[in-house]
């Protein structure tokens, strides 16, 4: 069964872990074209993902360097199968954040 969700409505939505604790917001969605369809590969959540979505890495990292930041650990890469979109207004993880790949960037 195919289930369609308007992706633009997911951007900025707070994602909860299985216990109901906020993990971050959906800031980027990666998809791959297969034939006439686009299939979701993964969701990026957190501040790091926002910089990626806005293609603002260089500017963002320069600002963070000026503010004295060395490393940023505020984001996760969530495989499509680990995101529960049963209620698109309240997306949640099917696993604990510790099980996900962290998005990590260094300002150096």
UniProtKB/TrEMBL annotation:
Residues 87-108 are annotated as: Disordered. It comes from the Bacteria. This is PRC-barrel domain-containing protein. It comes from Nostoc minutum NIES-26. The lineage of its organism: Bacteria, Bacillati, Cyanobacteriota, Cyanophyceae, Nostocales.
